[in-house]
Design a protein that fits this description.
Tetracycline Repressor, domain 2, about 80% helix
Length: about 180
């Protein structure tokens, strides 16, 4: 069943509560986070918070859905910018992994946050498949797109810092696709 759209005031409050939930999850992790902490961070009562999210898992799912949408939009925007296939793919992969790295680099619980619930894991897998398909449309080759995306995940997971990650992704796309990346 489709939910009714929120009024502008309720939509703005929901975004504020998602910001609060995201901050609490990043600081405490999913297991230690509480609805009380999210309500306090958002400056609302628990009753108000429960009016938007039935429980902590629902708040976590809301944060994950919003983050996936932001990642998708930013990455697709990077692919749509002018340039060669190498430049587009480099920008897109750097954008996607850069956003995740910037969000999670200060969270000691990033692994828990990314794989905590199957519904969220499925959300990430769908996002990655969509982005890989978008890269395939730019490169003209689904296997190359999959190789680039999977290799970029390894780079992002093992990079010492953002600068190394960005440089290594550029080297990867240039090595696979050629051109100036």
């Amino acid at each position: 069943m489709q939910e009714a759209p929120l009024s502008p005031v309720r939509a703005a409050r929901r975004e504020k509560l998602l910001d609060a939930a995201q901050a609490v999850f990043l600081q405490a992790g999913l297991q230690a986070a509480t609805m009380e902490a999210i309500a306090a961070q958002g400056g609302v009562s628990k009753v108000t918070l429960y009016g938007y999210f039935s429980d902590k898992d629902a708040a976590f799912h809301g944060v994950a859905v919003r983050l996936a949408g932001q990642l998708r939009a930013s990455t697709l925007d990077s692919l749509a910018q002018p340039g060669t296939a190498t430049q587009k793919v480099t920008r897109a992969l750097q954008t996607k992994h850069g956003m995740v790295h910037a969000l999670l680099r200060n969270s000691p619980l990033s692994d828990e946050l990314l794989v905590s619930r199957l519904q969220v894991r499925d959300l990430w897998l769908t996002l990655d498949a969509d982005l890989t398909a978008s890269i395939a449309r730019v490169t003209g080759d689904a296997d190359t797109a999959r190789l680039l995306f999977d290799a970029s995940l390894g780079i992002a997971d093992n990079a010492r810092d953002t600068n190394q990650m960005q440089a290594d992704i550029a080297r990867l796309t240039k090595a696979i696709l050629g051109g100036t990346g």
